[in-house]
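Worked example (supplementary).
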Amino acid sequence: MSTRLAKGGRLIDRSAATEFTFNGRRMRGYQGDTLASALLANDQMLVGRSFKYHRPRGIVAAGPEEPNALVNLGSGARLEPNQRATMTELFDGLEAASQNHWPSLEYDVGVINNTLARFLPGGFYYKTFIHPRAFWKHVFEPVIRQSAGLGKAPKDRDADRYEQAYAHCDVLVIGGGIAGLEAALQAAKAKKRVILLEQTPHWGGRAPVDHGTDVGPLVAQLSAMDNVTMRLRTTGAGVYDHGYVLADERIADHTPGDGRPRQRLWRIRAGQIIAATGAIERPLSFAGNDIPGVMLASAVRDYVVNYATSPGDRTVIVTNNDDAYRTALALHAAGLHVAAVLDVRAAVTGDLPAQVRAAGIRVEAGRAIAKVKGSKRVTGVQVCLQAGEGAVLEEIACDAVAMSGGWSPVVHLYSHCGGKLMWDVGCAMFRPDPAKPPVNHDGSAMVACVGAANGDGIGAGEAPMEAAWVTPQGAGIKLRTKMWLDYQNDVKVSDVQLAAREGYESVEHTKRYTTLGMATDQGKLSNINGLAVLSQALNEDIPQVGTTTFRPPYTPVTLGALAGEARGDIFQPLRRTPMHDAHEAAGAYFEPVGLWRRPYTFPREGESHADSVAREVINTRTNVGLLDASTLGKIIVKGPDAGRFLDMLYTGVMSTLPVGKCRYGLMCNEQGFLSDDGVVARISEDTFLCHTTSGGADRIHGWMEDWLQCEWWDWQVYTANVTEQYAQVAVVGPKARQLLETLGGMDVSRETLPFMQWADGTLGGFPVRVYRISFSGELSYEIAVPASHGAAFWAACMAAGESLGVMPYGTEALHVMRAEKGFIMIGDETDGTVIPQDLGLSWAISKKKEDYLGKRGQMRNHLASPDRWRLVGLETLDGSVIPDGSYAVAPGTNANGQRNTEGRVTSTYYSPTLKRGIAMGLIHKGPERMGETVEFNTVTGGTVKARIVDPVFYDKEGAQQNV
Amino acid sequence: MREIIAKLPLGHAHISHGTVTLAELALPRLTSVAPFVGQDKAVAKALKSMGLTFPNSNSVSQSKGEGALIWTGRNQAFLLAADPTPLQGLAALTDQSDGWCGLTLTGAGATDVLLRLVPVDLRLSALPAGACIRTGLSHMNLILWRNAPEAFTLLVFRSMARTAWHEVEEAMRAVAARAAC
Amino acid sequence: MLTLECPYCGVMAEETELSPGYEAHLKRFGPGSSDAEFEAYMFARKNPKGVHFERWRHAYGCGKWFLAARCTATLEVFGTYPAQVSAPPPEIIAKIKARRPGWEFK
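After joint prediction of all chains, the assembly is encoded as:
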């Protein structure tokens, strides 16, 4: 059994007992324990079930590479699945539960898959679930969904907060082992600004366990330097372009609910990155190497030395290198029994084995494990010759097996940004190729690996290891189907060999076919062994087969940390107009328009949105309505060449616009497609104010700057985006003029301020600029005031209009009224494939100008063709509203067997004014087909018939707006 | 004529968490200034009469009075508080007084708050007191002016003032919580 | 997440503060150009693996567009410069040639 030893344990505090639960059972540990060490101390070796066969799974490792000991941590709002017990610090009250079993960890129904294992070979997903097709939806998918995924997804809103922070440094050292500490000291002494990160709560890495090193003085020296920042519990998760590193700091994982943010995601910009990330020990492939009680040799000595926890009373060690002998010595020193060391090498000559032999421990050379006995727990091993086929020589009783297949440098951070690796034959490992590092912005090497991460020191001073990818060497299929490579995803030696036989020669394909290395540990234990098995099966060298791509993050980062504070109200910036509070008070229902929130409608008690929109439309058309138009983009274009510039930007002529007048303009991209529209007002000889769509201000400002700086840089033009400077109120309706006259202060009569002119003045004491423009077809004034007066001006308009029946209206009423009037809307009538000519807007395109942006594009034969879909009005025969997004169907089918189409709806509304459904749409040769009937498909099936009509449904003569 | 009182974007809010205080600044007159081509000397002369010089990149020119000229880009600066009349005809002048919201963030830990929010290097060696920089604050445009090692003026778009306030306050809470445990 | 120095501000801006544009040093073909010329200008944009010249906008900074020369394969940046030129400055060309022997500006 696994148990707590009476003495020792360099990381635990025996005076601080800690209680926790596992699957509801109360257990005890000490402060300083990991959940894994505490579980072992409570003889809880069985911690989960594997993904495919639901085989019993025990703790294998002591670090982040752990593939098996994944638990659900916490409950309710603090439930988090797939937490590695080896990286979870124990705290009082910790709740953990095992995963992937039903109904219980001890008795699992899914284990039936184990018996059916021969029917679930590598690639079974691809082979099994193809036919019959109908089964996919009704049988296969539900079953796979049922059994897919390891942990439980939390259902409650996360109780914790997460933060993010930026940091800048000259040298970032990732890994606080001896190599990292020394690298940090060296950089710090060179006066560099250094940040040093360590993923565990302790400095020193493997050195204290493997060599008895005391890193205290080194840590103290670094702590005393003010150009060094040291962070424990912080994983360097990913290396990105130009020295950008994401690091995940677990601040309060072990002190939940203490008020601090639970985790902090660091965005570090480093001049140079030093990866001191160490190495990970590899398992050996032998039959039954997945049975609980089989562990990495280094993990066994970690548990004994660091936590005074023995994985077993009688341990058999199996190895292909000298390093594993350190485990024998550690177990021996702790008074535990080592039944034997089985070494696959024919000759065992090293110094460490000599010490082990001297301690009286049995060492057998040229031996391997034929098979591990036991199911939920190791009970013994069958010993065979490594050079044979697995004939059993003897059986040794034991309750733990410590295995070592050599070490793999953690080269992930070197590889994230394209650093290349090279194969080291002597140590059978990939190590960084110093000639091909990832590069920084200046072309220098961005990442350097030091210590074991660079392969340095692995096997140093020891007898050579011997790569033994399958033990015993000649193992038959019966044994190979029980040799696990990927413990979590149940990928075995036989699966990879099968993939090779079936023609999967690329390691990337084999990975996806077999799911090798695709579990949550991302192949930290399995990749090299799998690769070696594949290359043997293909009869190629390992470097030729290559390795899979290492991608960030190195270990999982919780989504909360990636989101940081960007949730709830500050998920993204929210833009509020100066009148926002008044709209809220008036009960507005808001809709997002870009980052803005605009009132969609102002429903009254008992009204549906459709009711209130209809009321707003009718009231505006009969009395007067107010629209908050502050979100409209406003860009000042100024300078001696401003007119010339706008003539290039707009399809029409702006340079001839007299001061004091307004003109509607269209902007196209160079391909000729309509991109934005709005009214331009000439403020003075050299100054224009360009209105853009609400969402378009920043984009159009950038577009203007692009042309001014990259193409016409010798033109004297200055732009300023003043969208935020002004609040804008549209006063719309037959009584609009009366309302402004009530406010008083300037002449707004037809004679002084006719349609499409503007004037500066005061209204109700407010400094205003009044534009006589209309997007509704009614008498309309758009009034700009400085933003700080916006709320007060809105209130003044509401008060002045009270006796006139004024009501605010929202964006939906605006849309309905503009559609009744046949005005196009960017984003409804346009989608990036529509030119102004399609929309009947040729009147806004200058025929005289030699050039404007988009003119050449519009001359392309496809766009100049008379065969295009063009804008028309649509009137349903039955008065109903055509569903949004409907297509006009045409006879016949296309090459894909789909119904032919001859047009589509672009805007469709119920018109309260006309009391029927109206729509605009793009129809093949539409304007030539007035009076014809077309059919639109509907969401519910069937079609609705509509007549092609003029798109202006309301006041075709313009009598209402020009009064 | 009634008296018109301008409304600040956030209604003159201020709040403290721990040692850091965030307050809305009653932003004085703000004019963007872009000197016309060939007018650099005339602009310099006019600015001299106002006690200012055209600032170098990432810096601010301050007069003895309230006036300041904040660099905002090549050939472009924001004139704070001062009357721009002397520059009339020499530069493109645009009144932006109402388009921005000013915030001040002061007190020990103000830098810790900002390092959670802005991607720039805030070490004093990289951004000394008196320097300014244009950058982003969680997808919002920001003009950041370091008045002292632990005192900053932030200018954000008026419409986003509420979100910016919320962002900064959340970061202030996080800093205060860490100081408390 | 790359960094580029804004040649106007002199600050190293990171990708979140920048908006990408498209190929730099394009010659615009407007009305009067042939279909082939317009196609080459509008649609046949360069997308090399290696040295490339691009437009970037310091969107969260000064708002101005500038040009950058970088290697699309390694992300090495050879330099950034103001956009008001029709060809890369000689010092940028020299720097690229020093780093990529055999490379020629086309």
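Two points are worth noting when inspecting this output. Chain A has a mean pLDDT of 93. Residues 160-276+407-457 of chain A form a domain with the FAD/NAD(P)-binding domain fold (CATH 3.50.50.60).
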